[in-house]
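User: Can you write out an input/output pair for a complex, sequences first and structure second?

Assistant: Here is one pair. Inputs:
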Amino acid sequence: MREPALISVEDVGKVFPMTHSLLRYMRGMPQLSVNALNGVSFDIHRGETVGIVGESGCGKSTLARCLVRLHDCDSGQIRFEGKDIAALEGTARRQFNRRVQMIFQDPYSSLNPRMRVRQILGEALSVHRMRPKAAIPTRIAELLDIVRLPSDAADKFPHEFSGGQRQRIGIARALAVEPEVLVADELVSALDVSVQAQVVNLLLRLQEELGLTVVFVAHDLRLVRHISHRVVVMYLGRVVEIGPTERIFSAPAHPYTQALLAAAPEMDPRRRNTAPAARGELPSPLNLPPGCAFSTRCPLATDRCRAERPALRATENGHMAACHLVDTHAVTA
Ligand code: SF4
């Protein structure tokens, strides 16, 4: 029997209120708000890599921030080893903060430019008292070796490194506190394509060698396929398809996933596809469509789609998709 989920995301909602404009206020109109997450539920198991994909604005980065408690959920809850992370306090909260680490998207801004790498890593080791003071230099050398940076990197400042090397420093800083979960939000999207694969392969190796659980948030399907055991596809703050990576890539059931795959660029630049991810514009998260959120862009939309929101249900391939057509026949947009 499979062991219980390490992390359970249960019906999570997150709303960001907009600034109340004077005009709306004077007209007595309600304050607008962005529904970034709308009832997101899925499990993450120990030792697996879960890829979260979707267009910009689908809520994946908000979800990543909720997973590490940079945002608190407005509804639902996230459980870590069965405990609601919003209720953790004191030592339990500090332990959670150590065990679940986020690696940020932008290696240029997430490292203090006035600190040498030795200080950056030493600070991470000291905050959680990971090593006695005398053992810190040895641990810093180990961490640099783990992320394949030369030992003399310890005496340099972040600006002396390339983007890919800076991202390796960010990974070493996260590993300094010996986490069990890494949440990587668009880890390589700021890097050159040639460097992206190196950093992703590093993460893959670390996941295997250290038995890490990884949440890999990205809009690039190629990278997600390469690294993830399971994939969660999000659209306008909801999960529209979830399942084992190869099943989703070989037999996507949701028309949105099919559109994303059709538009995914090839590794070979000569075969790059410039098709949009889906026809039409992403609807405003200020005003979500009724029924299926994808109905304004879906070539298969029916009246039922525009009126009734589809629940996630099992496909014939054994994964889950939120589409009214999943029950009736294989969807091919
Ligand atoms: Fe398209 Fe309808 Fe399925 Fe939504 S429920 S994805 S609109 S076919």
